[in-house]
Amino acid sequence: MQIACVGGGPAGLYLSILMKRRDPSREVTVYERSPAGSTYGWGVTYWAGLLDRLQQGDPDTARAIRDRSVRWSDGVAHIHGGTTVHHGDEGFGIGRHALLDILTERAAGLGVRLEHRRAVTDRAELPGADLVVACDGVHSALRAPHADHFGTTVTGGRNRYLWLGTTRVFDAFTFAFVPTAHGWIWCYAYRYDSDRSTCVVECSPATWTGLGLDRAGPAECLALLEGLFAHVLDGHPLTSRPDGDRDGARWLTFRTVTNRRWHHGNLVLMGDAAHTTHYSIGAGTTLALEDALTLADALEDDGPLETALERYGRQRRSALVPAQSAARHSARWYEELPRYTALPPQEMFALLGQRHSPLLPYLPPRLYHRLDRAAGRLGPLRGLKRRLGPLLARTLHPR
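Predicted structure:
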């Protein structure tokens, strides 16, 4: 069996590892348009459950990722001049470059062929491949010609965001909310290495234009943000690239990608080409790796390829429903941030942790907080809350 993975991100590399490890006779090639060793982005987050699943897929990869990761166990929110701490689940961070190095080295060691500086835009360019895996990102060139078949939908978000890095090391997952004359601006920050952190800045379109961020040059933009978040950066600079570059800052709006079907003949979607979830839930890399695990399992059966690909798509679309719901409500929470900023800091932080709830947008925030606290003490009320949220979500937003 000849397998071509188009896109050298975590999804494609990890699938190549799984397929080659399970059957060394397979011919597996990963095509990546960028040069070897180059990547974008900063750190990625994940939780302990992913390590358990990776351990089942390939213990060597799981061990290497665990050893290169950093951990945190608290959340910290800065708002209204105060600081609130929440002791929550343990999380992990790892640099995207480190993650790709681990996966690339493991794939090469297993005999996977890696072709860098090779852009594949049509599966006709790979006539010998029995299976072509499109893991070429949000703007997938392989998906685009068949968008009608896949049922591709791309929905733009409202807020503007900017992905940055800093040498300020955050020991906890940190949120900072800053009021300005033009509205609120905020950041999420987390450590991904011993001396580096990711810092994602977000604001509404009105705040973005009101502060002049739509017109500011890259260096001016970073200087303005360093001033706004000086209380959490503690004198450390913001950079737009890991090499310290301050000229590449680019504001974006998040695009949510969904597909009704995930394969077309021998072409199958994976990772961001198949789905995206808002960055505020920190699940993108985890979901991509889980795609690879599910596809590898489906391909183990001796039945027709069509049956395996259909089963893979069905299983992953079903498994993604909770994450996609959480991402949709999380993005909405931030888009409606002024609804929550009048709350006392501890209550606001509590609702920040509840932002995935489909019930929250439809109840006054203070009432929801009181009900949530009561539900934590009373079992029957907790059960009612769990049932009412999804019911209300289905009623107001039919799938």
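Summary: The radius of gyration is 22 Å.
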